[in-house]
């Protein structure tokens, strides 16, 4: 699942920082979601 999230982000030509800003979260948090180190909350 996590690689799919990265693929979708890359398909939109966004870097992690840009997408994190759109989601109103830190880039570090987003990176942890994308790498699978942190579970993605259902509220996002």
What features would you describe in this structure?
InterPro entries: Cro/C1-type_HTH, Lambda_DNA-bd_dom_sf. The protein starts with a helix and ends in a 9-residue tail after the last helix. It has one domain (2-35). The protein is 61% helix and 0% strand. By secondary structure, the chain is an all-alpha fold. The protein is globular, with a radius of gyration of 10 Å. Helix 2 crosses helix 3 (27-35).
The gist of it:
By secondary structure, this protein is an all-alpha fold. It has one domain (2-35). Helix content is 61%, strand content 0%.
List the helices and strands and how they pair.
Layout: H1 2-11, H2 16-23, H3 27-35
Calculate Rg over CA atoms. Answer: 10 Å
Number of domains: 1
Q: Provide a count of the helices.
A: 3
Quaternary state reads single chain
Global shape: globular
Judged by helices, strands and strand pairing, the structural class is: mainly alpha
- Low-pLDDT windows of residues: none
- Helix-strand pattern: HHH
| Major β-sheet annotation | none
The count of β-strands is 0
Estimate the mean pLDDT confidence. Answer: 94
Strand content: under 5%
Termini separation comes to 15 Å
Bin the helical content.
55-70%
């Amino acid at each position: 699942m996590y690689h799919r999230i990265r693929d979708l982000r890359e398909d939109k030509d966004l870097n992690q920082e840009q997408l994190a800003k759109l989601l109103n979260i830190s880039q570090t948090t987003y990176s942890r979601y994308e790498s699978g180190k942190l579970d993605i909350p259902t509220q996002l």
